[in-house]
Amino acid sequence: MKTIGVIGGMSWESSTEYYRLLNRHAKARLGGHHNARSLMLTVDFAPIEANQRAGNWTALGDQLADAARQLERGGADLVILATNTMHRVYESIEQAIDVPFLHIADPTGNALRAAGITRVGLLGTRYTMEQTFYTGRLSERYDLETLIPNEAERADVHRIIYDELCHGNVNDASRAVYQRVIDELAARGAQAVILGCTEITLLIKPEDSALPVFDTTALHAQAAVDWAIEPV
After folding, report:
1. Which among 135, 197, 198, 201 is annotated as catalytic?
2. Among the options 83, 125, 128, 216, which is catalytic?
3. Considering only CA atoms, which of 174, 173, 129, 133 is closest in space to residue 150?
4. Closest CA to 10 of 40, 42, 51, 37
């Protein structure tokens, strides 16, 4: 098995989910006592979050490129970034390393197309929902129409991620907020919903949603393990 390098810590709450899912999928694929061979570099989220708010994406790209180089020097054969939002700077990471980089939107795009979905709702941070680095990739590579919540709903979704989920706080009232947002996306014609922030998996499970759920965290981890076992 190849070694998966994970840039984590954004937040560490979702990075623990990555570690669990990587190993669970490796065991499902290989059986016995198998784990996923992995390295994780956990960054300090506080300066990253501050640079996000300041719109300093150049500095963020430099920091994550350095993290990727550290993983490659440590023996990673593949690098993944355990956050949707910071794929805003994925090109900086790809250019910094010689090993492959697995973009988080690609396993989700492939799964949606395989399911026959053409119009999908997207939940994530304000950056992921409002900027084009994510929705544009889904459109250009997978011919997907992406619907995002209205402005007030986007504010609620973003606030719950940063003020609650990033701190490990999972609240029923916030789950109800997300469920109402999903219902609105369904009313506008969404056939499914992307959990486009790696923390949302802590709050919304398939049984909580009126729409089929495509969890980027789970899909990304599974694709990384599949590549590590049978690189393509």
Report:
1. 197
2. 83
3. 129
4. 42
Q: How far is CA 24 from CA 27, 205, 217, 231, in A?
A: 5, 17, 13, 19
Whole-model pTM over 0.90: yes
**Would you identify the CATH topology of the domain 105-216?**
Rossmann fold (3.40.50)
Which CATH class name applies to 4-104+219-229? alpha beta
- Is 83 designated active site? yes
197 belongs to the catalytic site: yes
Give every strand in the sheet of 38-42, ordered side by side.
38-42, 4-8, 78-81
Is residue 45 within 8 Å of residue 53, measured between CB atoms?
A: no
Pairwise CA distance, residues 195 & 204, whole Å: 8
The reply to whether 4-104+219-229 and 105-216 are identical in fold is yes
Q: What is the pLDDT of residues 17-75, one digit of tens each?
A: 999 999 999 999 999 999 999 999 999 999 999 999 999 999 999 999 999 999 999 99
Q: Parse the chain into domains and list their residue ranges.
A: 4-104+219-229, 105-216
Which residues contact residue 174 at a Cβ distance below 8 angstroms, ignoring those fewer than 6 apart? 160, 164, 203
Query: What is the C-alpha to C-alpha distance for residues 77 and 96, in angstroms, rounded to an integer?
Result: 14
| pLDDT tens readout for residues 147-195 | 999 999 999 999 999 999 999 999 999 999 999 999 999 999 999 999 9
